[in-house]
Amino acid sequence: MSGARIAVNGVSLAYAAHRVLHGVELTVERGELVAVLGPSGCGKSSLLRVLAGLVRPTAGAVRIDDVPVTGPRPDVALAFQQSSLLPWLSVERNVAFGLAFKRQPRLSRASRRARVLDALREVGLEHVRSWHPSQLSGGMAQRAALARSLAREPRVLLLDEPFGALDEVTRADMQRLLLAVVRRTGASTVLVTHDIDEALLVADRIVLLGERGTPAAQWAVDVPQPREVQLDRLDPLRIQIRTALQRVIARAA
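Structure for ABC transporter ATP-binding protein, as requested:
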């Protein structure tokens, strides 16, 4: 598996008279992890849905490896803040859910199960594959949701604040897991987050969205991993990002 290049060219999105995105230009290189920051309501989640092919832009285009995105693709996975596990299915069956859908590649039952078990092993949940969601902690539920995305063997991974509801320790564990997954799979990843520190810890590049989803600034994060043991090197960039974010919020007020 390897990542795909994502190109967003002049993308706008409007619902009735409400303009959500306007002329967005963005690229994500193969295997790159890009974090997207911005004030509430600036269109971060809407941008992810456009990238996933769940919503068609009113103008512009998204291309994955030069192929226009016109709908959902089997090699693009989207994970949300809520794990959205089906309570009546076991963890294993939740991770397998969707692999037999029409848009997915046709796999034998044995191949599907192998993918699921590999994904569960990747996130450290193979030992609870027979459990149901009600038996899982919040962190375990998010691991299961990530495994469900990984079972599709995506070339593009889209994450909408997936760790926002977790406690600090569990969130740090999930951030380390995300880095390991991206490193192993090479998936091109877009992470929407409201947390500047999270973006600094995991991203290769940080993009700040301004009003109506227009990119206002971006920064390369050149500090090598693991960054949690060298937080002082991130301080100057943290100040730059916080200042730029405050400026964007003030303009929108």
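Residues 30-55+70-75+156-253 form a domain with the Rossmann fold fold (CATH 3.40.50.300).
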